[in-house]
Design brief:
79% helix; mainly alpha; 195 residues
Length: 195
Amino acid sequence: MEWSFVFFLNSALLGVGLAMDAFSVSMANGLHDPKMGKGTMCRIAGTFGVFQAVMPMTGWICVHTIVELFSSFETFIPWIALALLGYIGGKMLVDGIKGEEAEEATELSAGALFMQGVATSIDALSVGFTISEYGWLMALAASIIIAVVTFFLCMAGLNIGKKFGTELSGKASILGGVILIGIGLEIFISGVFCA
């Protein structure tokens, strides 16, 4: 592969495809906290962007070093995503049903954000296989493009979630929790049954 318009277009489209889970989780986060500030939004979108850049590079490194270990780990990816998103979504769902969000939405903790970042980007590890013919500089450039695309899509998701979170007020955490559990199930089903 050489530096060309097709390379940048493919990287951007790959970024869009990979960012869909992070976009949906960002919408759920926006629903959960309609009064979220710009700094928090940038932190969330930035976290997702960093994970979406790190995972393909990690996959690329695995392809060039420890392929056998990575291919055996790949079968666990849907299970890990289901567990992480199921846990986070379930907690949001329970909080919403109990009415604990009524007073004020709790800010997303660093641990929960980390788990969301891992859960939504872990499937991007396999992208290391698709970019394995790239040199390290092109793989890094593709990963950075994926991160930038993810950042902007997540900012859009957070804004959409905030808008609807304000309109849904008390039921936002319930909807956000259902969305996260749904994303976890979708990753699990497509990874286990459609692979």
